[in-house]
Amino acid sequence: MTTSPYKLAVEDLTVAFGHGRRARTVLHGVSTGVRAGQTLGLVGESGSGKSTIAKAIVGIHPIRTGRITLGGEDLTGLRGRGLVAVRRRIQLVSQDPYASLNPRMTIGEAIAEAVDPVRADARKHAATVERWLETVALDGSAAARYPHEFSGGQRQRIAVARALAVEPEVVIADEITSALDASVQAEVLNLLEELRRSLALTMVFISHDLAVVRHVSDEVAVLCRGELLEQGRVRDVYRAPRHPYTRRLLASVPAFEEKPAFEKTLEKKESAA
Ligand code: ADP
Ligand code: MG
């Protein structure tokens, strides 16, 4: 066992692409982690290495040095069946829902496969599928339809339902609202916020958008050119960023003091309730 406070911990992670003189290091000894039942917001500009961290965690990118642990268990260098098992315990949802949703499978089939990869029978698992669809505020009738029949926001909610149906220990959401219009983005974020509470999710929420990250995270980690600059409680980092880069990043958020639209939507909902 480790003494790490984190459910999922990344220690001194280095990732490089290419070999020999062409090799380019994109993560330089990154250490971070997420506590059980909490959400870690991972922010950084495009190209800073956010997706590379996510992919290294789930074993898509090989790592040069470092260690990844889940509940104290070392996942580094797992292959074969061990890797397959870990991929179930940590679910990655990305910006492009087609990466996690097969266009030729009905939603019901896709979720049934997540529930039970061995006997992925949509009819056998109909009740469970319906429950997961309802969890993401979709009607059970969605089960018989195909991904292209849904809007972008609905597809992302389906991708989330599919990931949750695996009952993973950690969910990594990589820019899952970035391609959506502001109002649809607010809808997905409010849903995540609800799920985070009701399911006590442990989540890594990746975004280049600091306003969005603030809304859904307990802690925030700031990445810049493959280096982790600082990590702390959201209110501490946003009120008193320690690193000049974080200060600049916060200053560039338009009308940062003003509440973003989705928080206003939330307040409206709350006062209506
Ligand atoms: P972010 O998600 O923060 O936008 P990425 O992790 O996607 O950043 O990329 C970080 C850096 O690594 C970028 O410079 C990108 O070009 C590079 N990179 C990402 N994936 C690969 C790959 N498969 N091969 C080579 N370079 C890559
Ligand atoms: Mg990315």
UniProtKB/TrEMBL annotation:
This is ATP-binding cassette domain-containing protein. Keywords: ATP-binding, Nucleotide-binding, Transport. InterPro entries: AAA+_ATPase, ABC_transp_ATP-bind, ABC_transporter-like_ATP-bd, ABC_transporter-like_CS, Oligopep_ABC_C, P-loop_NTPase. Pfam families: ABC_tran, oligo_HPY. Residues 8-250 form the ABC transporter domain. CDD domains: ABC_NikE_OppD_transporters. Belongs to the ABC transporter superfamily. One of its GO terms (molecular function) is ATP binding.
